[in-house]
Write a structure and sequence with these properties.
CATH architecture: Roll
Radius of gyration: 20 Å
Structural class: alpha+beta
CATH superfamily: ApbE-like domains
Number of strands: 17
CATH class: Alpha Beta
Strand order of the largest sheet: 1-16-15-14-11-8-7-3-2
Strand content: 15-25%
CATH topology: T-fold
Bound molecules: adenosine-5'-diphosphate, magnesium ion
Helix content: 25-40%
Largest sheet: 9 strands, antiparallel
Number of domains: 1
């Protein structure tokens, strides 16, 4: 535990999860390391990646502060959109984008970019510039976290079933045989959006794709509404302020209680909040032990970590997504050190119920326990 960490007394409280966030800037990217200014790990400036969907020129004018909602199930996640003053087709267009991203990035959709990479048998293939940009950033974050984040975890993540009810897990032999296939540095990215993955290796974008999509939805919706709350599971992005001009409130999930119960509350704007946790996608094995879905690339087993959740606040939801996963793997001490090195605002909850925040976090985001929030 870092000396500078702020320890906040742990309290349990129940209620509905509040969500929020704000705006996202744009940078166009291409399939060339030269064209793309890599985002420094932890940079809290503009999102690094971005494909712009032009604000519909023909869209109907903004309708005051009228609220519209929509959502659907994509990439094993419930997408929820709340828009204020949006044009008529904003929700439908955002959901269409989710469908398009699912077809591009899902490893199970035949013909998707990820599926083609995983079935290329060592050959070089060309992918969509958006896929390439995610791979570029994934590789960068993998290097910055000493491999704690590794999209090449796929051969091993496929051996586990954390959500389907079968409680499948690999034998030690299967797991150890697949471990040498986990190495993001072996994935080569070339000019013209090419990808070369050594035969036998596979990728899984489950730890980063939702963040990328949240960034894209925020960028796409920002010019088309006066405010929006975009939620993709643990990734939230809020575009614009609340209709009354007040700051948005974000709830930090209480990892020891039911979904929807809050541990604490923070206020912010122009930011994405991403939480990774060991408490959601997991099963209890025959040995009584809990097995969760964030794997340690060094062992192929659920990460042995003192953290149950990591919540990061960054303007790039993609970076926050990948880093939150990595921070769970490395545990509180290393996570706190990395967050401070990278200039990232983060709040961690440990297995023994402590809440640790990066320096300045509490003041910057007016963070308080949910109980304090209710009684203020
Ligand atoms: P969630 O998808 O539940 O929001 P995360 O963002 O933490 O959670 O991503 C976890 C997912 O990422 C796993 O379901 C798996 O697909 C993949 N994954 C698991 N461990 C790692 C890891 N160490 N590095 C990269 N991806 C991982
Ligand atoms: Mg993640």
């Amino acid at each position: 535990m870092t000396r500078k960490a702020v320890s906040i007394q742990y309290m349990k409280k129940k209620t509905t999860r509040l969500l929020t966030l704000l705006l996202c800037g744009l940078l166009l990217t291409g399939c060339s390391a030269k064209e793309t200014e890599p985002e420094a790990p932890g940079e809290t400036g503009q999102p690094s990646a971005v494909h712009t969907q032009a604000p519909a020129a023909s869209a109907a004018p903004v309708r005051g502060t009228q609220k519209t909602t929509g959502g659907g199930a994509y990439f094993d996640t419930q997408v929820s959109l709340t828009l204020y003053g949006a044009d008529e087709t904003a929700i439908a267009d955002a959901l269409a984008a989710c469908g398009r991203y699912e077809n591009l990035l899902s490893k199970t959709v035949e013909g998707s970019d990820v599926w083609r990479i995983n079935h290329a048998g060592g050959e070089t293939i060309t992918v969509d510039p958006e896929t390439w940009e995610i791979l570029r950033r994934a590789k960068e974050i993998s290097a910055a976290t000493g491999g704690a984040f590794s999209i090449t975890i796929a051969p091993i993540s496929a051996m586990w079933d954390f959500t389907g009810g079968t409680k499948r897990m690999p034998t030690d032999e299967e797991r150890l045989a697949a471990l040498p296939l986990v190495d993001d540095s072996a994935m080569m990215l070339g000019e013209g959006c090419t990808v070369t993955l050594p035969a036998g290796m596979q990728i899984d974008l489950g730890g980063i794709a939702k963040g990328y999509i949240a960034d894209q939805l925020a960028a796409m919706l920002a010019p088309r509404c006066m405010g929006a709350i975009i939620s993709l599971g643990g990734n939230t992005y809020v575009v614009g302020d609340k209709p009354d001009g007040s700051l948005n409130t974000i709830g930090v999930q209480d990892p020891f209680a039911y979904t929807g119960s809050l541990e604490g509350v923070l206020m912010c704007k122009n930011i994405s909040a991403v939480t990774s946790g060991t408490y959601e996608r997991r099963f209890q094995g025959p040995d009584g032990k809990w097995y969760h879905h964030i794997l340690d690339p060094e062992t192929g087993l659920p990460a042995e970590t003192d953290l149950v959740s990591a919540t990061l606040l960054m303007t790039s939801s993609m970076s926050a997504d990948a880093l939150a996963t990595a921070f769970i793997v490395v545990g509180s001490e290393r996570a706190m050190a990395l967050a401070q090195e990278m200039g990232i605002d983060a709040i961690f909850i440990t297995r023994d119920g402590q809440t640790l925040a990066t320096p300045g976090f509490v003041e910057k985001y007016n963070y308080m326990t949910y109980e304090a929030f209710l009684t203020r």
